[in-house]
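Hi both,

Apologies for the delay on this - the queue was longer than expected. I finally got the zinc ion-bound model through. Below you'll find the protein sequence and the ligand SMILES exactly as submitted, and right after that the structure tokens for the full complex including the ligand.
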Amino acid sequence: MGRELKGDRAGLPGTVRGFCGEMDKQGDWSPVPVLLAEAPPGGPAEHSFFMEILETMRDGLRKAAPLDGVYISEHGAGLSTEEDDVDGAVFAMVREVVGPDIPIIATLDLHGHVTQRMRQSVDVMVAYLTNPHVDQEERGCEAALLMTAMLSGVRTTSTLVKVPMISPAVSLLTARGPYADLINHGQTLVKPPILNVSILAGFAPANASTNGLSIVVTADTNKPDARVTARNTAQQLADKAWAERHRYEPKLTSLDDAIKLSKAVVEDPQKPAIILADVADNPGGGGRGNTLFVMQRMIEEGISNVTIGMIIDPALAAEAHSQGIGARFWARFNRDDDTKFSETYEADVQVEKLANGDCVGRRGIFEGRRLDLGPCAVLSLGGLHVVIATARQQLADPVFLERLGMNIADLRVLVVKSRGHFRAGFDEHHSPEQIFEVDVPGLTTPVLSKLDLDRVPRPIFPLDPDMEWRVPD
Ligand SMILES: [Zn+2]
């Protein structure tokens, strides 16, 4: 990884690319990589595996000494089977190894959960400002600039306010809406002594004691009133978030209405094309990417000219590849993963197109990022074109379809297994008015009452809709 940090960075996360790129501009520096580990969202990690990762990092840091600074890129909503605050455990370990005087700066996804242990362990936390997350490189750059400032003597103080509210990810877009207003307001407050305002709405399906909205404000202690300004700023933002909590309720489209819309669009070429987002089965949020509720209903209704992607089914993708283009065969969807929401389904299909999964993102959150989707196929099923992939990944980049010979501008009805990141990839031909979030069952449903959240702190909005709350002094 050392060579990648200084050379071709396409295989690295956007935050790390941004951090390294900006550090290059700032002058001579030597990156010492410790560990890169990534996995698509899912359930909590086995605790023993997490401890192994933690010890590998500790070992790497010790061997890397002496260091001038530490940069950490994490998501922020990590869980193990025994630890709700794995990010706090990592941050605290880093501080313990490098001591109190070395700057530590972390970037976080805005779906992370911040704890006091995280805040106390690092000097600055920089969260994404955009959802879809198209500012990952920019936040990495910001972290590098803060690192440079700290290496020149800047020191920081920070405040964390936890606001007891959980919002489904579909209500957390930043082009418009309550979260956009909150984040934008926060950015107007970034002026001396304030160095950074980060507002992390959290990851709604996380059944953890850390769940909730986190507001983190960091100030420069060399400037007057740093501590009190940081605290007042965080409190003001917490008040605004709480006052507007009712604006975060999701508005979903029923499957019946989605079917009506699809029929209307397919029958009338004058109508604008639409995207139906299967938000309850988003691989980017922990879904398996293989529920078939929308597909089966489309088949029952006899709708044609609809594209569905991507259904994650390694066995079916492999079979399509062994059958070859043009072959007809009796497909068994979910033969290896017959679970709640993802039942086995059989149908007569024809192989339309095949491809390997090696690609570089073209637009949106994966732009410039090298990815491998594993063997992919397009199956024709009735009038549907169903895209099958092997690696669990959300359909967030148009290149995933273009490399299978599809032209996005020609697609009349597109069903995507993605919660919201597809919006930044498909915005060339689909405005927000052409996008409908469909209410079907699934692991990542935005309907919070359907999730198992017995470990989140109570009371919390909207699970306790009538609760009262004030910002603590
Ligand atoms: Zn996120």
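Main takeaway for now: The chain has a mean pLDDT of 96.

I'll put the files on the shared drive as well.

H.
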